[in-house]
Amino acid sequence: MSIEIKIRKNEPIDRALRRMKKKLDRENIIKGVRAKRYYEKPCEKRRRKNKVQAFTAMLRRRYES
Q1: pLDDT for position 16
Q2: Structural domain total, the chain
Q3: pLDDT of amino acid 4
Q4: DSSP string computed for 15-49
Q5: Is residue 25 in a domain?
Q6: What is the rounded distance in angstroms from the CA atom of residue 58 to the CA atom of residue 50?
Q7: Residue 64's pLDDT is what?
Q8: CA distance 51 to 54
Q9: Which of 8, 15, 49, 64 has the fewest Cβ atoms within 10 Å of its own Cβ atom?
Q10: What pLDDT shows up at residue 1?
Q11: How do residues 7-65 score in pLDDT, each as one tens digit?
C-alpha cells in the first residue's frame, strides 16, 4: 500500500504534509499501525470492542431525542 501525494506548483511543504496526514487518517493507516505495534490478546480485543460498543450505545441513547 503506497500513498502518493503530489506537491502542487508553488505549494508550501506544510500544506502538502497536512494533505498527506489527512489522507492517512481517512484511510485509517496510522490507527492500524498503532494497533499492531504490540500484541493484543484476543480477550483484550473483545474487551476493547465491547467497551467501544457500550460507549457508542450510551451516546446514541443520550442524544436520540
Answers
A1: 93
A2: 1
A3: 87
A4: HHHHHHHHHHHHTTHHHHHHHTSS---HHHHHHHH
A5: yes
A6: 12
A7: 87
A8: 5
A9: 64
A10: 61
A11: 999 999 999 999 999 999 999 888 888 889 999 999 999 999 999 999 999 999 999 87
Four-point Cα dihedral 46, 33, 29, 56, nearest 10:
30
pTM, 2 dp: 0.56
Q: Considering the domain boundaries, does residue 22 fall inside one?
A: yes
The C-alpha cell of 50 is what? 465491547
Query: What are 47's three cell numbers?
Result: 474487551
Q: What residues contact residue 65 under an 8 Å CB cut-off, 6+ apart?
A: none
* Residue corresponding to grid cell 483484550: 44
User: What is the residue range of 32's domain?
Assistant: 13-63
- Quote the DSSP letter at residue 11: -
* Cα–Cα distance for residue pair 62/65, rounded to 1 Å: 7
* The residue to which cell 457508542 is assigned: 56
Residue 57 lies in a domain: yes
